[in-house]
Specification:
HIT family, subunit A, 3-stranded mixed β-sheet, about 350 residues, 15 strands, single chain, alpha+beta
């Protein structure tokens, strides 16, 4: 079947599901089923092992490791890198541009068109997922991923758009966790704006970060500050519009007053939504672009690692676990390599 016909047919079906009682989550379930049947999704997660490492004295604290050897194949790609005759490679063959995806993936990969306040997006399934229903939500327009938190230039990606679009999507996916990785903070495709979402693992639905204590502040604008965590994290909780407004104002001021090499400033944002509390939670993790890895010049720390789950995919990484080297202290120390000093957060 012609790609455009297949696209239109599937999107009509997904839109019908999304507007019914199942919402966006049910539509993404169907998209995952379709992409698995088409052969695009390369991993069913059956070989993934998730290990929990508890604190030696405090049973309330833990970190996790995900052993995911198939994830190491993702850099090889599942499609072709050079366009066949009659096709054109746009934006240096960007892997998130629909025009390239059509020929790169042999017309197997189809996305779902969704909207947010800041613009239009495609939801693409990840061929080498980290967790169930792992989705890349990519801007339909080829917009760079890089976010300059302190910039007023019209051509730069705006903090308000990132926060609003990430949080709006998270609110539609209450059983998922969503995140934005800045350049040098886990972004694998820096040339194209995208978020990632995945469904919580049923056996361990809460992440270590979510189970930590935060120090409340008396100010109605200042966020809560995490306690006893190897990475500096702040959070806001509440209604979407209130959270986005407070976060944008506080982060903008924080970025402007810190004595910091601002060209190297980047960030992770993590967003979740609870139907039970009718509450959005937004985490802000300030990062330095030169501090991206937990293992020297490899082992990227992105949104999932910030949440407290270290992904180990290479044979060398998996051997660390097999040889009994990894424990709570090992993970705590690994994550501390990317932390922005707490003093910078108190501005």
């Amino acid at each position: 079947m012609d790609y455009e016909i297949s696209w239109s047919t599937l999107n009509a079906k997904l839109q019908s599901i999304a507007t019914a009682s199942g919402g966006l989550s049910a539509a993404l379930d169907e998209l995952e089923n379709h992409q698995r049947e088409s052969g695009f999704i390369q991993d069913d997660l059956q070989d993934v092992q998730r290990l929990v490492f508890g604190h030696p004295t405090n049973t309330d604290l833990n970190f996790r490791v995900q052993l995911n050897p198939k994830r190491a194949q993702r850099h090889g790609g599942a499609g072709v890198t050079h366009p066949p005759p009659g096709e054109e490679s746009l934006n240096n063959g960007c892997f998130l541009c629909r025009e390239n995806i059509r020929w790169q993936q042999g017309q197997r990969q189809i996305g779902f068109e969704i909207e947010a306040s800041g613009g239009s997006y495609y939801a693409w399934m990840n061929p080498f997922p980290l967790l169930p229903n792992h989705v890349v939500v990519a801007s339909q327009a080829h917009i760079p991923q890089g976010l300059r938190l302190f910039s007023n230039r019209s051509e730069d990606l705006k903090l308000e758009r990132v926060l609003t679009d990430l949080c709006e999507t998270a609110q539609q996916l209450p059983n998922h966790v969503g995140f934005y990785n800045g350049i040098g903070a886990g972004a694998s495709i820096p040339g194209h704006l995208h978020f990632q979402f995945f469904r919580r693992a049923p056996e361990v639905p809460k992440f270590p970060l979510e189970e930590r204590s935060f120090q409340e502040t008396e100010s109605g604008v200042a966020p809560e500050f995490i306690l006893d965590y190897p990475i500096s994290v702040v959070r806001w909780c509440g209604q979407l519009s209130e959270v986005v407004l407070k976060a944008r104002r506080w982060i903008t001021r924080w970025a402007s007053v810190n004595d910091f090499e601002q060209e190297r400033l980047t960030a992770n944002f993590v967003a979740t939504f609870s139907n039970e509390r009718d509450e959005l939670t937004l985490y802000f993790v300030p990062r330095h672009r030169d501090k991206q890895f937990w293992n020297g010049n490899k082992g990227i720390v992105g949104g999932l690692e910030v949440l407290g789950e270290l992904v180990m995919a290479s044979s060398d990484e998996c051997a660390l676990v097999e040889n009994g080297i990894v424990d709570y202290g090992f993970i705590e120390n690994a994550l501390s390599f990317v932390s922005t000093p707490v003093s910078l957060l108190n501005s």
